[in-house]
Amino acid sequence: MRTVMKSMMLRALRDLGEVCKVLVVVGVPGALLLFHVWQEYQITQAGYAIAEVTQEHRDLLEEHKRLTVEATMHGRADRVALTAREQFGLEPARPEQIIVLDVQGGPEEHASLNPGAVFTR
């Protein structure tokens, strides 16, 4: 009886050893494969995040350019108006000082487009 139990134990241990070998042969490459897939997923997600931040950076640069031009133009108009007032005594035109011209005809009759045109009053 002891020998039968002993042989069964040895056979169970051999079977356990075989199962462990199979698990190592299949499990290690499987774990490496899963790690590789997870790593590629992380790299892809980082790429998407970088693309998003890069686009946001480009948008902010474009807005900065637009605001810089706007601020420059606004500052110029204020400086021109200030210089006109201080140095030349000019003031903004009052509504009654504005004369509206009614141009008859199309652009083909405009003097700058037709150098040979003669206009009389």
Give your account of this protein's structure.
It comes from Lujinxingia litoralis. It is a single-pass type II membrane protein. It is found in: Cell membrane. Pfam families: FtsL. This is Cell division protein FtsL. With 121 residues, the chain is an all-alpha fold. The chain has one domain (1-88). Helix content is 72%, strand content 0%. The protein has one helix and no strands. It is rod-shaped and about 125 Å long.
Would you spell out the secondary-structure blueprint of this structure?
Blueprint: H1 2-88
Give keywords.
Cell_div_FtsL, single chain, 121 residues, transmembrane
User: What is the CA–CA distance across the termini?
Assistant: 137 Å
Mean pLDDT: 84
Identify the quaternary structure here.
Answer: single chain
Q: How does the helix and strand content classify structurally?
A: mainly alpha
Low-confidence stretches: none
Number of strands: 0
Report the major sheet.
Answer: none
Listing every helix as H and every strand as E from the N terminus to the C terminus, the arrangement reads: H
Strand content bin: under 5%
**Domain count:** 1
- Which of globular, elongated, flat, extended, rod-shaped describes the shape? rod-shaped
Task: Name the helicity range.
Answer: over 70%
Q: Report Rg.
A: 43 Å
Query: How many H/I helical runs?
Result: 1
Keywords: Cell cycle, Cell division, Cell membrane, Membrane, Transmembrane, Transmembrane helix
Subcellular location: Cell membrane
Main location: membrane
InterPro entries: Cell_div_FtsL (IPR011922)
